[in-house]
Predict the structure.
Amino acid sequence: MLCISGVVVSSVSSSSRTCNDILALMSDIMHGFATCRPSKSPVTDLIRAVCLDVEPGKQGIGLETQLLTCDGGFDVFDRFVHALCRRFGLSMRRLLDCFDQHPESVHRLYSALGFGSIFRWPQEPVNSVTVESYLTSFQRHKPDIYYGRSDEELDSNFENLSFFTTEEGYAGWGPPALLKDDKLCIFPGCRVPLLLRKVDDHFSLVGQAWVHGIMYGQYYKDLDEISHRIQEFNLLLAAGHSNRRQMSSFDSFVEPWRQKLTSQTRAGEFPEYHSLSQLDSLISSSSPQSFELGTGASIYTNSLLPAILTAQREVILVTCFWAPSSTLTALKETVDRLAQQRKQVILENGPDALEVLRIRICFSSRSLFQQLFHTSSKDGYAYPPSAWPTKLGLPDKETLDAGAIDLGVKSLFFLPFSVMHPKFLIIDRERAWLPSCNVSWEAWLEGCVEIQGNAVDNLLAFYQRVWEPSLDISRLIGARQDRVPLSVSAVGLNSILSPARRFSRMANEETPTILLPSSHHRNPWAFHPMLPCTPLNVATLRLLELAEKSVYIQTPNLTTSAVLDGIIEALERGVDVTIVTSKNMMLLEQIVTALTTTALCLRSLIRWYTRLAKSRSQQMATRQSRSAASSEPVIDLEAAFPKTGALKVSYFQPNAENKSRGVLEEPVHSHLKLTIVDSRLTLLGSGNMDRASFYTSQELGILFHSSEFTRTVSVAVADTLVGRTRVLFDSHNA
């Protein structure tokens, strides 16, 4: 712990990750600066300062100097590109590709930087010169522009930045992991401002920042004004101990996770996440809105289908299994009624009364026959409109067209076992739900989290990479205000209730969030002796490694040896472990993919734990006996023999009373995928702790770092499990 003195300049109010399109980034910058106080920083000066690293009144470091010192023989556009590449550390190819795609925006950017009256804009259109020819002509200047670094290094550096504004009207650049309410601070003797994050009773270092208006000592000009604002910061720095960093739990999770994934790459991942820029694109924040428990039918009819009814422009529904069921019937009825109501609005108000509603439905498995004869192409299979009502149980095309609904349905599956297991719903690119349930008939205990915020953008990007590569995700699709609103209540839905249903509204607080995909792998278990290194797999094992006090795991099955090893190591360190799983659930799948079952794996775990506890007890007794007979000073026996963590293992079972009465939608198995570490880190999503999820299926998890979020989830789960578990082993009673 380091105690240092400094000043809090302001708190981060908003941030925007830099993107592949530099012109879109400029738009974000201009929007951010437009909200700054004009008296503090005129918009033109701010744009020039952040883009070109020039302070007003300073000479020799701005675009003018860069342009005038370029070698002769270049026109204005040449020099403009040269200067931007130098400033951003961006590869020439990336910048020119962007200009090639958006020639109409280049002039606006050039003018916004304030040099439209100084230099003549080239008469030739930007896209009249190919990228390749331009790169060739610029080749002799590459060392000067690239500083000896590769395209990949430069682009990674550019993408690992966030543009941010603060509550006091400052703006600048920071690391991608910065969040709202992070503190922008300056410290005597430090050449750059630092971003700090409050964690319990101390601060952790987020990273350094470039901030317009304080980089040249302006903030220290009136020392009397800031002297009373100097305060002490307890800063927790990295320190190696048992391969764990003594930082905040989120920071200590992220860095080893990134290092592991960048050090082990595999060809042909779908999707691939191994470069720093790819991994950092998964790290963001979200505002959790709700957490819900129940059966699949109850979650769909009470949350997901009502959400679809609110959509104005786009619905993206991704699931794994698609089968005739009460859920599918309710989904069909929802879309059908929605189309009928939209048709009525169009008849009454004209064809332009409503935006076209774009609905995309994606799934992996419909039947064994479909799996056996499914295409192996990553393009998947697009179902023709004629199959919507006959094979999929959806409304016909005529009904949808009349309601201005554009439907598309697609499936992806790879033999022999590679299902696309993620499940999520995105509405108008603003809200998202991640349920554990399929569109299927099973009465299982399921979970669902609803989020808003930047993590929704990351989820949309994941959807694009897997299901719809041609989708333009940079386009905002906010609904037009002059459209006729739909009345959701007028559509009418019949809710299916489950006695296990619990619905918890969240505090809508910005929460550090990581989206965790896992690529599918087509080979069966025999060809995969090594665990695939995917964001979700590495994250799961890192959580077990990071645990200091407690681990809670609720999973349909538990057959992955790497997870079992992680549990054993946690118990050896003194971490308490609680496991809730199902018995004989998907038994055939367990045997085929893992050559074992959850029951056998748990039996081995319990045997190992019993032997460990007995061995440590015997060693402790022997040491105590020798110490009592010796005249040597008493030693700390507990330090010599670390306490073994407590282990509790339970099977999920239906509530006995509800089962005897034949209550509908009483869950018979638990299909919830939940891991909680130290009451702060919560992992939800589609991934089971079995070999199928770790080795063959494509999966998607989502990790939240929030004590309040974890508390809400834990309370709901504990309440639902009352009367629905059977204890298999409890070390407290052993």
